[in-house]
Amino acid sequence: MSETTFEPKIIAFLCNWCTYTGADLAGTSRLQYPPNIRIIRLMCSGAVDPIYVLKADLSGADGILIGGCHPGDCHYQEGNYKARRRIVALKEILKNTGFEEERIWLRWISASEGTRFADTVREMTAAIKAMGPNPYKQIWAV
Amino acid sequence: MEAIIQLENRSTLEALQALFKKLLAEKIVDALLLPMRTPKGTITPALVSNPDLLDHADPLAPVLAVNTATLAGKVSVRKPRARVGVVMRSCELRALVELTKMQQACLDDLLLIAIDCAGTYNVPTFLKKESESDQPLWKELFQALQKNPQSDNPSLRSACQICEQPTFEKAALRIKLLESDLDEALFLEVDDSLAEKLNLSPAPASSQNKVVSELIGYRSQRRDTVFTEIHERIADENGIQNVFAACIRCHNCMTVCPICYCKTCVFKSAVFDHEPMQYIEWSQQKGAFRMPADTMLFHLTRMNHMALSCVGCGMCTEACPAELPVGLVFRTVGQQLQKTFDYQPGRSMDEALPLVTFKADEWTEVGE
């Protein structure tokens, strides 16, 4: 796979109430954004167990996006604050064990921010393209 | 208060056994959880309720076969329960504090008795050294540190060699072995009410003893040197694969870890069992597929679950049949993580576990 034709695969864990609905709005508003994203809907960003983020990373996903409600707006009051701490901890572990933690993004996108969702996917796809493929696509001994 | 027990021709061990018997005789506790010497000469924790059997108590033997924190959890976690005195080393007590925060233990009816630690051997080394030595092994270790707190002992467990927390200050009773004149007397730090019940004599104005602070200073340096070495090994692009490539996935590290408390670990469940064709598909994607699967996922997830509470007891290292430096790696990463959250496991019951709490206005740069 040459660098020029590399199309990143981004796994997105989106909360039902904000970011997923934001993605829906982007769709119904016919906003164009790169088709590199594979969405998994959860009820809350606080329901994203880091084990699945790791599983995606070690399986070769080029980027992982976790999307939740803006701080203060969580449907379950505080799920996104807890998600943030979990992602901080996860990134710290990855940073210290030789992984590219920059492949993991946490973004707050509300149900009304279809444009922000499309922009985020665009921005992330470009950033991951610049990084190149996840080396774990090739590394078999994990 | 500071108290003193004169040995008066007794051995240190006999003086301690007498003290423990008193705890049972005065009904201060209903039972004691402490290291006992079996008829075979091995050391195992036991829950003792008959004071006569305390003749076999041996909390001084420098060996740590299991981290007793888990066991203290079993006898305290829910009501009805009895009052139990636990005689433990610092790493065990710190793990107990963490388990209490995780609601796997409860300190309400536990009497914490902390015994200063000069380091422990692994089980085979301990048994070998005991068969060869006619002096009590613990005494050599303490005397070596009292003579020179900066002395190294490469026979000790690797975790003990870099242990910078040989004492635990928040116990109801602390047996200050590091600061005691081992041939004459035992120094204790004890809660006033307990001292009264045990009828302990106050110690004369304590002379400044620098052993503990010097030991902590030196061991902290040693620890940082080891952390730097480990960090260099695991922070390049091959990362922890450098260390865990030889892992055989026995899960011993998880089984013996006092912090890993889940009754059914996700890695012992069927969560990551897949359809036969799925494995073939992965094999075809990468050309080869390591089996058993998810070895790095296992270690990274375990880190994610317990590194913030890792007390560095090193049980995992001892349990690893592949002789991987599991504990040192977990402590190295754990320390970075603990620094990030300004959290020190076992330090205080007042500090919430970092992942169950939050502030609204923190790490705003992580979630944009």
Which short descriptors sum up this protein?
heterodimer, A: 142 residues, alpha/beta, Rossmann fold, four-stranded parallel β-sheet, 4 helices, 16% strand, globular, B: 368 residues, eight-stranded mixed β-sheet
Distance between the termini of chain B: 52 Å
> How many individual β-strands of chain B?
8
Estimate the global geometry of chain A from the Cα principal axes.
globular
CATH class designation of chain A: Alpha Beta
> Counting H and I runs of at least 4 residues, what is the number of helices of chain A?
4
Which spans of chain A of ≥5 residues are poorly predicted at pLDDT below 50? none
Portion of residues in beta strands of chain B equals 5-15%
Oligomeric state? heterodimer
CATH fold field value of chain A: Rossmann fold
Count of individual domains of chain A: 1
Radius of gyration of chain A: 15 Å
Largest interface: A-B, 41 and 49 residues
Q: Profile the largest sheet of chain A.
A: 4 strands, parallel
Tell me, what's the shape of chain B?
A: globular
Mean pLDDT of chain A: 96
Mean of residue pLDDT of chain B?
Answer: 95
What fraction of residues of chain A sit in β-strands?
A: 15-25%
Structure description:
The complex is a heterodimer of chains A (142) and B (368). Chain A is an alpha/beta fold. Chain A has a single domain (10-134), classed as Rossmann fold, CATH 3.40.50. Chain A is 38% helix and 16% strand. Chain A contains 4 helices and 4 strands. Chain A has a 4-stranded parallel sheet, with helices on both faces. In chain A, helix 1 (19-28) links the parallel strand 1 (10-15) and strand 2 (37-42). In chain A, helix 1 (19-28) crosses helix 4. The two termini of chain A are 21 Å apart. Chain B has 14 helices and 8 strands. Chain B has helices spanning 12-25, 69-74, 90-101, 123-132, 137-147, 158-161, 192-198, 211-234, 241-244, 252-256, 276-286, 295-306, 315-319, 326-340, and strands at residues 2-6, 31-37, 43-48, 84-88, 110-115, 173-175, 185-190, 201-202. The model of chain B has no long low-confidence stretch (mean pLDDT 95). Chain B has 2 domains: 2-210, no CATH class; 218-366, no CATH class. Chain B has 368 residues and is α/β, with parallel strands linked by helices. The radius of gyration of chain B is 22 Å and the shape is globular. An 8-stranded mixed sheet of chain B has the order 3-2-4-5-6-7-1-8. Chain A binds chain B through residues 50-51, 54-55, 58-60, 68, 71-72, 78, 80-99, 106-108, 135, 137-142, and chain B through 231, 234-242, 245, 266, 272, 282, 285-290, 294-297, 300-301, 303-304, 307-308, 332-333, 336-337, 340-341, 354-360, 362-364, 366-368.
